Amino acid sequence: MTALLDIDQLRAFIAIAETGSFTKAAEVVNKTQSAVSMQMKRLEERLDRPIFARNGRASKLTEDGQRLLDYARRIVKLNIETITAFSDAELSGRVRLGVPDDYADRYLPEIMARFSRAYPGVELTVICEPSVDLLERIDANEIDLAIVTNCETKRASETFRRERLLWVTSSRHSTHTEERLPLALGRPTCSWRRIAIERLETTGRAYRVLYSSSNAGAVAAAVLAGLAVSVLAESGLRPGMRVLTATEGFPELPACRVGLVRNAHEGSTLADALAEHIVSSLDNLSEAQAAE
Question: Per the confidence metrics, is the pTM higher than 0.85?
Fold first, then answer.
């Protein structure tokens, strides 16, 4: 009989593929780097072919590794769904989720509704703060799981969504044509703010930060009122906003990655179950791969 693939090995493999590093992947799956390396050695032996083309500290996938990634994601997802479906004991307790407010506005109602229907005995506590603050709460053991948005993957996270980062203005105003561009951006610690300013300075465009807030609703309000231009992820676009393009003098921005960061201090079945609901609600990476 053909030996089956090990689920834990596949989870570690997915984490390496998404973080680009054995070290970061070890943080995601809560194992040592040597343990993850041994898992990948055994997985390659089981498949009888290399799945990583190591380049310095980075670990890129070979062609066979790319083929395996889609299968691995589907196998792990189905495994979690199966265990959940046949679990006799109803989960109860409390799970703490951190989420940026722009994602809370758009996606949290669906996530909460699905999770509540599946686990009516679980209390879900939600904290809405910027990603940088949520990472601090994870480190302080104040939340179990965090949805984080970033354009540079420096922290180990399970990336499940990618979105375009866009320049936006009001569709009813010409704010973007002002000689000294007024901006509505996040706090100075916000990576989107830094990227926007770097891009404008590269082009030599004069600007001024007119509004600064960690609240996505406040930034959006400034844009819709025609007071300022901002940078938002594609999912953050609202009626009354218009995307600004390179032909209008606005340089292209990098893609924004959305991922999950888990509390390494306390792994829990509740956090795993919530993570599955979040990924199934927001995942667009597997859809893109399926279309290729």
Answer: no
